[in-house]
Model the fold of this input.
Amino acid sequence: MKNMQQMMKQAQQMQEKIQKQMAELSVEGSAGGGMVTVRMSGLKQVLEVKIESEAVSSGDIEMLQDLVLAAFTEASRKVDEAMAGQIGGLTGGLGIPGLM
Done:
């Protein structure tokens, strides 16, 4: 029973460490050759959106919407990859079910 409590405590510490690292992480996703850039935290909070004037001056709202969506999607994917790397590094590649 004591061994199980110790394992649970270690799992909680690992989770807290991952959350702290992810909160400190910042990634960027871009689209349209950099016309739209989204900066996102490891907790998937959008920190910044940059839109170059060329993307707006064309007047093509649908294209701009697609570029914003693509940049957001890329940033989100990068966060997922970083999280998988963090978990893999902490678990030593044990392949624990339920963890990326």
